[in-house]
Amino acid sequence: MTLIMNPGDGNYVSVISTALLQPIVTLLESLENLNPQKANDVQVSDLENGYAASICVLTVLLLESTINRARYVRKINGLNSIECFASLILDIELNEQLKELYVLRDVIAHNHIWLARINQDTMTFIDAVRLPGYGDRKFLEVFDKSTRKTRKLGLNIFPTRIGLSDARTVLATASHILVTFENLDRSIIYISNKQVTYRGSRLTLQDLVNNWNV
């Protein structure tokens, strides 16, 4: 746990937040070292799935910790994390993207169960049905049933299909959200000076995700 001093009153506020950055990046490096092959429609390999799911969940936990820090700094009560973010960041697109990250977190954390018929020769879907009881209102708001992905970010929400591309998308989106928070108020988070070790180099999360676009 990282303890962050609250300026002015001498108290500490327990916020995990950026303590998760290096573990996330270490998992990413391990995932990339697997050299994942092109996935089929139904699944990625067990190893890729496990690493990617871990990265996605930890990244959303990092965001939730940061939002809770914002809730404390701005004295916001009575709102859930998505609502709290929306009350501070007046960017509809970014709010929708955050919602999709939370949906993906729920899909993994609660292991949404689907029953599917597949062509085992081509590993493609004939049809797939999500069982009742899995998914809430925000899931239905972001779910594209024709692709089994989210509408904005294209995140796989068929659990065994979650892989490297999803992990990278989640990290890139999280980086944007964290920088947006920093630009709003550095007492919430100062991410630009946080470095991680990736393939023997020290760099920021922003530098890491920007390299994927080269």
The strands making up the biggest β-sheet line up spatially as: 1-2
Q: What share of the residues does DSSP label as strand, in percent?
A: 5-15%
Main pleated sheet: 2 strands, antiparallel
Number of strands: 8
- State the distance separating the first and last CA atoms: 34 Å
Q: What order do the helices and strands follow? A: EEHHHHEEHEEHEEH
Radius of gyration, taken over Cα atoms and rounded to an integer in Å: 18 Å
Helical element count?
Answer: 7
Mean pLDDT: 92
Strand-pairing-aware structural class: alpha+beta
Oligomer: single chain
Question: Tell me, what's the shape?
Answer: globular
Fraction of residues in helix: 40-55%
The count of domains is: 1
Which regions contain 5 or more consecutive residues with pLDDT less than 50? 1-6
Task: Put the structure in a nutshell.
With 214 residues, this protein is α+β, with helices and mostly antiparallel strands. The chain contains 7 helices and 8 strands; from the N terminus they run ββααααββαββαββα. The longest helix has 28 residues, at 46-73.
Structure commentary:
The chain has helices spanning 21-33, 46-73, 81-88, 92-109, 137-142, 164-184, 205-211; strands at residues 3-5, 12-14, 114-119, 124-130, 143-144, 149-150, 195-198, 201-204. The protein is an alpha+beta fold and 214 residues long. It has one domain (3-110, 160-211). The strands form four sheets. It has a two-stranded antiparallel sheet with strand order 1-2. Strands 3-4 form a two-stranded antiparallel ribbon. Strands 5-6 form a two-stranded antiparallel sheet. Helix 1 packs antiparallel against helix 2, helix 4 (92-109) packs across helix 6 (164-184) and helix 6 (164-184) crosses helix 7. The chain is globular and about 65 Å long.
